[in-house]
Design a protein that fits this description.
133 residues, alpha+beta, Alpha-Beta Plaits, 2 domains, three-stranded antiparallel sheet, globular, binds zinc ion
């Protein structure tokens, strides 16, 4: 008999989802990270952390407690160019505004090519800078 798994939280990248899963594991909660399609992942929120229904309320409480933010700058090498960086402070703690409904649909229909054509609003969680990239 398989247990029901519930989504605890959605993440825009796999690293943050995996770090959150590790934090839950430290408290004895087994979680799994699931990725939606590559295109939905690129559009934001494509990685979800799931736990058993029995662990859901405890996992939500733990992540709320820990939601002071995972400082990605501690984990990403300063020379790593694969992450989007804040133009002001070079932090990788950058949030990209999720795509709206029609933009997400267009991204899926165009197999992600649409994502190369649009500029997205970004926000630095460290210094508060906002820009369009
Ligand atoms: Zn910044």
């Amino acid at each position: 008999m398989s247990e029901t798994h519930e989504t605890v939280k959605a993440f825009s990248n796999e690293v943050e989802a995996t770090l959150a899963r590790s934090r839950l594991a430290q408290e004895g909660i087994d979680g799994t990270v699931h990725r939606f399609s590559r295109y939905r992942a690129l559009a934001g929120g494509g990685y979800v952390l799931k736990v058993t229904a029995a662990d859901l309320s405890r996992a939500l409480a733990l992540l709320d407690e820990l939601d002071t933010g995972i400082d990605m700058d501690e984990y990403v090498d300063a020379d790593d160019t694969s992450y989007r960086r804040c133009p002001a402070c070079r932090s990788v703690n950058v949030d990209t505004r999720p795509l709206g409904g029609w933009q997400r649909l267009l991204a899926v229909v165009s197999l992600g090519l649409f994502l190369w054509c649009i500029k997205r609003d970004c926000h630095c969680a460290k210094c508060g800078a906002r820009w369009r990239a």
